[in-house]
Specification:
It contains three helices and two strands; from the N terminus they run H-E-E-H-H. With 102 residues, it is mainly alpha-helical. It has one domain: Ribbon (Pemi-like Protein 1, Chain: D), CATH 2.10.260. A two-stranded antiparallel sheet has the order 1-2. The radius of gyration is 19 Å and the shape is elongated.
Length: 102
Protein backbone atom coordinates (compact mmCIF):
# COMPACT_ATOMS: atom_id res chain seq x y z
CA UNK A 1 0.00 0.00 0.00
CA UNK A 2 1.17 3.52 -0.71
CA UNK A 3 2.85 5.38 2.16
CA UNK A 4 0.34 8.07 3.11
CA UNK A 5 2.95 9.90 5.17
CA UNK A 6 4.74 11.04 2.01
CA UNK A 7 2.33 13.91 1.61
CA UNK A 8 2.78 16.98 3.78
CA UNK A 9 0.64 16.32 6.91
CA UNK A 10 -0.76 19.85 7.20
CA UNK A 11 -1.70 20.08 3.52
CA UNK A 12 -5.43 20.34 3.00
CA UNK A 13 -6.81 19.12 -0.31
CA UNK A 14 -9.91 20.86 -1.53
CA UNK A 15 -12.12 19.57 -4.31
CA UNK A 16 -11.68 21.67 -7.47
CA UNK A 17 -14.50 24.14 -8.05
CA UNK A 18 -16.17 22.65 -11.12
CA UNK A 19 -19.69 22.11 -12.31
CA UNK A 20 -21.23 18.89 -11.02
CA UNK A 21 -23.38 16.61 -13.11
CA UNK A 22 -21.01 15.40 -15.82
CA UNK A 23 -22.99 12.74 -17.67
CA UNK A 24 -22.35 10.54 -20.65
CA UNK A 25 -22.97 7.03 -21.86
CA UNK A 26 -20.07 4.66 -22.27
CA UNK A 27 -19.40 1.02 -22.98
CA UNK A 28 -17.27 -1.47 -21.15
CA UNK A 29 -14.17 -2.01 -23.25
CA UNK A 30 -11.98 -4.99 -24.05
CA UNK A 31 -11.15 -7.19 -21.06
CA UNK A 32 -14.03 -5.49 -19.18
CA UNK A 33 -12.09 -2.24 -18.77
CA UNK A 34 -13.65 1.10 -18.02
CA UNK A 35 -11.95 4.36 -18.94
CA UNK A 36 -12.81 7.42 -16.85
CA UNK A 37 -13.03 10.37 -19.26
CA UNK A 38 -10.54 13.21 -18.78
CA UNK A 39 -13.24 15.79 -17.96
CA UNK A 40 -14.52 13.58 -15.12
CA UNK A 41 -11.02 12.87 -13.79
CA UNK A 42 -10.30 16.58 -13.83
CA UNK A 43 -13.60 17.40 -12.10
CA UNK A 44 -12.68 14.98 -9.31
CA UNK A 45 -9.09 16.20 -9.06
CA UNK A 46 -7.70 12.79 -10.06
CA UNK A 47 -4.10 12.61 -11.24
CA UNK A 48 -1.84 9.80 -12.45
CA UNK A 49 -0.96 7.44 -9.63
CA UNK A 50 -3.91 8.31 -7.37
CA UNK A 51 -5.34 5.43 -5.38
CA UNK A 52 -9.04 4.97 -6.10
CA UNK A 53 -11.63 3.65 -3.68
CA UNK A 54 -14.49 2.15 -5.74
CA UNK A 55 -17.69 1.16 -3.96
CA UNK A 56 -21.04 -0.29 -4.92
CA UNK A 57 -23.80 1.74 -3.25
CA UNK A 58 -27.48 1.14 -3.96
CA UNK A 59 -26.70 -0.57 -7.27
CA UNK A 60 -24.29 2.17 -8.43
CA UNK A 61 -20.53 2.06 -8.88
CA UNK A 62 -18.97 5.07 -7.13
CA UNK A 63 -15.35 6.13 -7.38
CA UNK A 64 -13.43 8.50 -5.15
CA UNK A 65 -9.76 9.06 -4.60
CA UNK A 66 -8.36 7.81 -1.32
CA UNK A 67 -7.54 11.42 -0.39
CA UNK A 68 -11.19 12.45 -0.92
CA UNK A 69 -12.36 9.65 1.37
CA UNK A 70 -9.80 10.75 4.02
CA UNK A 71 -10.96 14.37 3.67
CA UNK A 72 -14.57 13.31 4.27
CA UNK A 73 -13.66 11.28 7.37
CA UNK A 74 -11.68 14.19 8.80
CA UNK A 75 -14.58 16.54 8.12
CA UNK A 76 -17.00 14.24 9.98
CA UNK A 77 -14.56 13.75 12.88
CA UNK A 78 -14.15 17.51 13.39
CA UNK A 79 -17.65 17.78 14.85
CA UNK A 80 -16.56 15.57 17.76
CA UNK A 81 -13.21 17.22 18.50
CA UNK A 82 -13.06 20.41 20.54
CA UNK A 83 -11.10 23.29 18.91
CA UNK A 84 -7.49 23.40 20.05
CA UNK A 85 -7.44 19.72 21.10
CA UNK A 86 -4.67 17.56 19.66
CA UNK A 87 -5.70 13.92 19.51
CA UNK A 88 -2.08 12.94 18.88
CA UNK A 89 -0.98 14.72 22.08
CA UNK A 90 -3.80 13.08 24.06
CA UNK A 91 -2.88 9.64 22.74
CA UNK A 92 0.80 10.18 23.56
CA UNK A 93 -0.09 11.28 27.10
CA UNK A 94 -2.31 8.20 27.55
CA UNK A 95 0.48 5.91 26.31
CA UNK A 96 3.05 7.52 28.66
CA UNK A 97 0.63 7.02 31.56
CA UNK A 98 0.00 3.39 30.58
CA UNK A 99 3.74 2.68 30.40
CA UNK A 100 4.12 3.93 33.99
CA UNK A 101 1.71 1.24 35.15
CA UNK A 102 3.20 -1.67 33.19
Amino acid sequence: MEDLALQEPDAVWERPKVEEGHRLRMRIGAKRRLVIPAAMRQALGMVDGDLLDPRVVAGELRFATLWERIRRVRERARQYIKPGVSLADELSAERREAVKHE
